Each structure stands twice: as C-alpha cells, then as structure tokens.
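dumping this here before i forget
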Amino acid sequence: MCLLHRVYQGKQGITYMKTTALPFFLLLALSITGCNTFKTQHGDEYLLKPKEAATLPANARLYFDKVVADSRCAPDVQCFWEGVAELKLILRTPDGQEKTFSLFSTDAGANHYQSIVVMGYRITFVQLAPTYDATKAASPVLTVRADLVE
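structure:
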C-alpha cells in the first residue's frame, strides 16, 4: 500500500518544501517502492510515465501510451495562451475489453476532454510534468485520477 499525500496548504515553510523538495522526495520514494498510486481528497490518483500502467479499482489496467502533442507554455515563460497537451491512454478490463482514448490538459476545443468516462471509469487529467534522468533528458510524468462510475 502506498501512503503518499499531497500538502495543499500550510505554513510558509511547508509551502516552500512542497514547491522545491517535495517533487524530489516523491520521485525518490516512487523509484524505491515502485508505487504509483496515492490517495487524495478527490479519490485515487496515479503517476505514470509513457508505457507504464496502473491497476485501477476492479482490476482494470490503465496504460499511458504516449504524449501525442504538447503546446503548453513552459513554466518560466509568460504566454498569452496556455496551450494544450494531448495524451493517448489505453484502458483494459479483466475480461479482455480494451479502449484507446485521448485525454487533454484542458477542455478547450472540440472533442477535447479533460475528464472522460470510459468503460465504467471516470478518467480525469490532473497534471503532466517533466522529470529529468541522469543524462538530463526530459521524461513526462502524467498524474490522472480514476474512479468507478456507478
């Protein structure tokens, strides 16, 4: 079981730690434990790199295939438009059903869904952030929320 929690608010020292040290410690903990699921006040969230999968409730598997496109503004640049990222995901149920779909970082545009219901699961985009390996190469890390729809 993975017991990682996000800090949403607190004293100035905690906020500072959240923005600088917390991502480092989170990635370190995930690399050691192999855990990519954590609980939030909104439900289960999953951290996935391309070609990784997470096991959802009722044993379905959610695969992050790839980033199809990403025109979002860089964090240290001032832009007049936020841009959009498109992500290709695959959902497989235990009985062998499979559905490939796109998820977007914003609802802007025709058929751009930040949250979508697929085969009884609501899959919601939370965040797409770059991480860097030892060679300084960027690798995206997707955070999604997945819940069974009743």
